[in-house]
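Reviewer 2 asked us to include a model.

Predict the structure of this chain.
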Amino acid sequence: MIGALAALLTCQLAGEVVARALHLPVPGPVIGMVLLFVALLLRGREAPPALDATADALLGNLGLLFVPAGVGVVLYL
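Predicted model (structure tokens):
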């Protein structure tokens, strides 16, 4: 799971680097997601089980990740 999380964060970092280096109006994480998608397409098979499990765990807890942002918005209204 740590390796898969590192792969996801590496793709996000690569997207940030590309976005800032080329001064693109697209957020870095979006570019990183496209890079991950292309890498998985080039792999030609389904996603590795560890990456699949890590993505499912992150998506399962996605609501919790929005709590601090929601509290911040409510606090400063």
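The chain is about 80% helix and 0% strand. The mean pLDDT is 92. We have added this to the supplementary material.
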